[in-house]
Design a protein that fits this description.
4-stranded parallel β-sheet, globular, D-amino Acid Aminotransferase, Chain A, domain 1, Dna Ligase, domain 1, 4 domains
């Protein structure tokens, strides 16, 4: 039985390809072009190019055709777009693929922050104070009730065609300008908004400084029966540092009381499958900010620490309970490896060099991160580099060079000026 993995430029896809391939499972990898790093892994049986997912009729037709020609194939999402789309078309896809996903309502509940915050309240999980403006009238209430600094963020990343991860508003006098910039930049594809028009409105969330250096993650797998197994990590460096993408993570011990609440949340909404959940670690408080119901970027870190999430998904999708139970039992026997780390070293080296030159990072800070890497030698998982599978690392580096050349202003803002 084979596995089909799409969105080959995502690091979680590459982690899944390697994990499944090393287990001897045939893997097909696909994307909208042939540039994704995962396509070039030695563990890929065949590289595929498919229609754009923003044209769902063509894309789903391609998927169904592939499934009919390749019976006994497992299909699983690797990003938010696919998680929602696979769930929305599960009736059709489950006829020709083995899948392990709940319905579209469940996925949307987890990927729409407004719905997610309501579910968290039911499961007694704390979230940052967040306000929602359904119309211009509500916006007046937001102006009256909000405090600063403030984040303006999309309610979801599903089919976000263009935009920003978040905008920082330092003072009330900046709100109008930042909101106008947000509305100009953030656009959703009609694939989503035709079904859920309310989702285009932004959210307004309190900004906590702990979010810069202390994002606590729990990631793992939850079965249909509600059994949840997880590993924990802390995001300790991101790019840009205030609101950005994780560069460095450290292993942490599981917080069992939080794991119980997370189990309750999954039962409440009806979720099963792979997951990554992010919390702001603000002192003793854990404030949930994201739930990713799919494979996720730093999944290779969990695999390296003895939790083969892609393999768990494979056994569960096939309905092989004995193999799933055995894999979960093996994961439980592993230590938590809290002394291990994860990073994208190519990008980390670039950030240290450029922000050091621009003065955005001090020499002591640069030494700190170089020492951080050195102290974890032999215990550091890289996002793409792998001595047993080298080509994806080379392809990824070349992709970044092309990206920088195509988007110089974004490159300077993010990598040089840390904005």
């Amino acid at each position: 039985m084979s596995v089909l993995l799409l969105a080959a430029s995502y690091y979680g896809t590459l982690a899944a390809v390697r994990c499944l391939g090393r287990a001897g499972i045939p893997v097909y990898a696909g994307d909208e072009n042939d540039k994704g790093a995962a396509l070039h892994s030695r563990f890929v049986r065949e590289r595929l190019v498919h229609p754009p997912i923003t044209e769902p009729a063509r894309f789903i037709e391609w998927l169904l055709d592939f499934g009919k020609k390749h019976p006994d194939t497992v299909l699983y999402p690797t990003n938010d777009h696919l998680a929602w789309l696979f769930a929305a078309y599960d009736t059709e896809l489950s006829k020709v693929f083995f899948t392990y996903q709940p319905n579209e309502s469940v996925i949307l509940t987890l990927l729409d922050k407004k719905r997610l915050s309501e579910a968290c309240a039911a499961a007694l999980i704390d979230t940052p104070r967040t306000l929602y403006a359904e119309d211009d009238g509500d916006l007046a209430r937001v102006r009256k009730e909000t405090t600063y600094p403030l984040l303006i963020k999309p309610r979801t990343q599903i089919f976000l065609d263009g935009g920003i991860k978040g905008a920082m508003v330092q003072a009330e006098t900046d709100l109008d300008a930042e909101l106008a910039r947000y509305m100009q930049l953030v656009h959703f594809n009609a694939v989503l908004t035709d079904k859920h028009p309310d989702i285009v409105r932004p959210l307004f969330q309190e900004y906590l400084t702990a979010a810069e250096t202390s994002i606590f993650s729990m990631s793992g797998f939850v079965t249909k029966e509600g059994e949840l197994f997880a590993r924990a990590s802390m995001k300790v460096l991101q790019r840009p540092r205030k609101v950005g993408i994780g560069l460095c993570f450290e292993g942490r011990a599981i917080e069992h009381a939080l794991q119980e609440k997370l189990t309750a949340l999954c039962k409440h909404v009806g979720y099963h499958g792979a997951f990554e959940v992010e919390f702001i670690a603000d002192g003793d408080r854990r404030l949930l900010i994201d739930f990713n119901p799919r494979f996720f970027s730093q999944m290779a870190f969990d695999v390296a620490r003895g939790v083969p999430i892609p393999l768990l998904m494979y056994h569960a999708a096939r309905g092989d309970k004995a193999a799933l139970d055995a894999a979960l039992a093996a994961a439980r026997r592993e230590t938590e490896h809290t002394d291990h780390g994860y990073c994208h070293k190519t990008i980390l080296d670039l950030v240290l060099a450029l922000q050091g030159a621009s003065g955005r990072m001090t020499r002591p800070e640069i030494r700190k991160w170089r020492t951080w890497v050195k102290d974890r030698r032999g215990k550091l998982t890289d996002a793409v580099r792998d001595s047993d599978d080298k080509k994806p690392g080379l392809v990824d580096a070349a992709t970044w060079v092309k990206h920088f050349a195509k988007h110089p202003r974004s490159f300077v803002r993010d990598f040089v000026l840390n904005r």
